[in-house]
Each structure stands twice: as structure tokens, then as C-alpha cells.
Design brief:
globular, alpha+beta, eight-stranded mixed beta barrel
Amino acid sequence: MVARTALTPGSANPRCRSAARSAGGAFIVRVVAYWTGSNPKTSRMRGSPSWYATGKIAGSPAEGETTATRSPGLGLGGTRMRQKLTGRDLGPWPRRQRRRNVTTICCQREVAMPRSALRLATASVAAAALLLATAGAGSAEPTTTVSYPAGANTTYHQGSAFDTCDAPSLSAMQAWGASPYRGVGVYIGGPNRTCGQANLTAGWVLSVAHLGWRFIPVYMGRQAPCSDRVSSVKITAASAQGTASAQDAIAKARALGLITGGAIYGDMENYDTTDTSCRTAVLRYLSAWTKELHRQGWVAGVYANLSSGAQHLSGVYTSTAYARPDALWIARWDGSTSLTGWSGIADGKWADHQRGKQYRGDHTETYGGVTLNIDSDYFNGPVALPGFYYTVEGPSSVNARSGPSTVYGVVASYARGATLRLSCQAPGAKVSTTSVWDKLTNGSYVSDYYVSTPSNTGYSSPLPRCRYPYQTTAADGLSERAGPGTSYPVVRTLRNGSLAWVVCQRAGSKVGTTSVWNRLDDGNYVTDYYVATTSNTTYTRPAPRC
């Protein structure tokens, strides 16, 4: 059988010349939809979507870039063919990649399609109608969605932080309450972690959190094949090992009592930037790291040297070959705490509570009579926290509900004196003196009026606010508006890939396929159509209704 493959003309793109030479007929079957117009943000799908089998040239240096093929019997033609939107390989192809990953078709070339690929193509086309109604959670590179479970929460730290190899004792952390630092980096695991960590336990994390500290979990995973650390455990199978590293990091974080939804930072130390194969291994490893963290409901961060890993991540910020991490923490020991003006990294990348900088290396500081050897950091990025324990007060029993209001259904009841493990606090319906509701780690809500937190009129430190950050996907930026509709004035713009820190969702004017609008933690609204939540037609749990 013959399939028609779209390739950029060789004279314009050397990588595609090589890809054309290597087109031996091995394909990964995908599904595509064609749209009218040249602008995917404003164009409309012509009638019912047409679905085609597509493939990727195996062994191409441009691996990860999608090329289009037509299934036998399905026509191609007209200006509609200039833009295409692709789905994920052989699975519940996510709607966001169908909608937004745009590839320009420049020319076509005949290649052979093996019978096995043709059978897969036929099955894919047959399943297309079902995909329209049942597209699953998640989206494709570079913006993969985070599948937050019900009890998840993410918070960010804005201010000074420090990291040190071994977690200090509890008494040292108490003494350092006199310091300007309120964030602490802790090495939670990894094959290259060299710290003893005698103090790092779930009990230590909970006690330190109650002192008001925020945690920056660091996983010292596999290092680049060309790493400066010659004796380190290195990447040999990038994608598989990136996934395995994320799985191990999550297990370590959970063992310390950290709440799902928090950030974990993969530590990628400096390496030789002239080694292109090494660069590719690093990017594949970190892409797999990001996707697995997202799949299990965690925010993905990367710590990297500004001159190596950070530059390479920035270079593929919009690439469909790699999943983009949610936050970037750079090492640049220049004494400056600035989170902008980084050489080679535009300020518009990782722009909304998504950055950290280690600005001073190995040195000692003393506070409260305790001296520690630390690296100094400045942060405005996602961090992690454990669950906080408080007890039920007031009546003989208190109802836990599925949302922060008495209009939500009762899912459990807790007797007076029962211990509750809280994830975060959210605004809701007023009960007596407070409109604050406490979200438990099982995802249910209890009015804070009946819980032994420090305040029964407002929010209580050290508990965080409930937030659910997702990356934005509008290439030209996403407008934050004063209300849930396009008739409201624009307040500011979120850059492509910025985190939309969602607090709750409500109905508003329809944009694309959805009438859902996200209220952000700054009080403004963005349409859910350009936010990588798990649905672009309806509400997304665990965010409550506004």
C-alpha cells in the first residue's frame, strides 16, 4: 500500500532531508483533524472532523516531530490541509494535542506503508468518532496536564530559601527562624544523593512545616552521560530511567508525608554542552520525568546549571518533542537574587511563580547561635508541604462535604475530638464567623469554624491556600480578565507555558468548546479552553465551583 507523507522541502530543512532519506515505511499510527483557516486559535473545524491515520518516520534525526500521512481511501486537498493537529500514539489521544499542536504541511512524498501499520491505521480511523466523546485526561508535549487527585494541593514560595546536603536538626530549624530564609531545599533521594539524612523523616517534615517552612524537594537522579561528575550514576536509557526516577521520587516524597500536588525538582548537574547526543539524552530523561510526575498528580521542577541544562530546556520550550517542566530552578553563583534577566532565557518563559535561583554556593551562615553550611536561593516557584493535623471542635459531630459549602453533599461525618489531616484552605460559604473551609487530604471539606486551627475568622498560617496550577497553551498569551467572560476587561496576560494557578471554576461566556472559566489566585479569570486541565468541555476536579 502507498501512503502520502508530508515533508518539508529538503532545500529548506536539512533535518527533513535526512528524514526523507530514512523513510523506510516504519510508522507510529496517529490520528489528525484538519481545520479551516491558518490560525488555530480562530479557525473552525469544517463540519464533523475528518480523521486520518498518520505516521512518524522511524530513525529520523527529527524524532518526535510529526509527519502526516493519509489513510488509503481518504482524500486530501484544499487549503484545509495546511494545518493539522495530532493525537497521541495509539491511545486515548488527548483533545488538547488535537486542538493545538500545529504542523505546517509543505509538500508530499510517496512512501510504502507496511501491512501492520495499515491495520493499525484502519483501527485508528474507526475509533475516531469515539475519541471525540471520550478523549482522556492529559495533553501532549510540550504542555502535559497534571492529573491532580481529590486531596491534592500545590503552593508556591516567594522569598529567600537555602539548601544543604543533610537536613538540619529540628532545633537548628527552630533557631533559623531568626533568618531571612523560609524555604528549605531537602534532598529526598536518588542514586546520586550522597547525604546521610539522619534527620529527614516524616516527623521532621511535619514539625518543620508547623514552624512555617516551605519545602523544595530535590531528587538527585541520574546525570547526563557527559556530566562533570565523572563518578555519578548516568543516563543510559533516557525515557525509561526518567520515568523510573519520577516514580521513585514520588515514593520518597510520600514517605515523608508530602501532599500529592506539590513540586519535586529533579537535579541535573552541569555537563558538556557541545555533546549533542548527551543533550538529547538529558532532554528525553527530563521529559519523561515531567510526564510521569504529571501523570501521578505532582508538579514537575528541574534544577539545572544556567549554562547547560537550563539553556537546553529553554531551547525546546515550545518543542512538541519534549514535555516542558512546570518550574525551572537555576544555579548561577553571581550573587544576584534576580529571577529575570537570565542569560539566554527569555523572561516570558516560566514566568508565573515558576522560577528559583541558587545565587550563592557553599558557604556558612549563623542564626540563633546555629551555624550551617548552605547554598543560598531566591524563589518564586512551586514547593511542597505535608498534611497538617488538627482536631474537630464544637458539636458532637461535623459533616465533611464534597465541596466548600453546605449545598454540597455529605461524604463523611467526624466526631468531636477526631483528628483531621488537612491539605489546604479554600474560600466557601460562610458558617458562623468564617467563610474558610478546610480541605482534607481525602478531598472532602469541613468548615474551618469547627476545626482547631489558629483562627476561626480567617485563614490560618502555616496552612496553604488551595491551588491547582496548570500550564497555559495559547501561543500568543492568555488574557486574564476581570470576570468570567470575554466582555470583561483584560487585566494582564499569561505567557505561553505560564502556570494558571486555579482556585475554582465557574460558568461564563463560551470560548471554543467550553463555557468554563478558571478563577486564579490573583482574583482574575481565564477561559479554560487554553488551560491544560483534563477537560475542554466541562469542569475539572478537584477544583471546586466558584
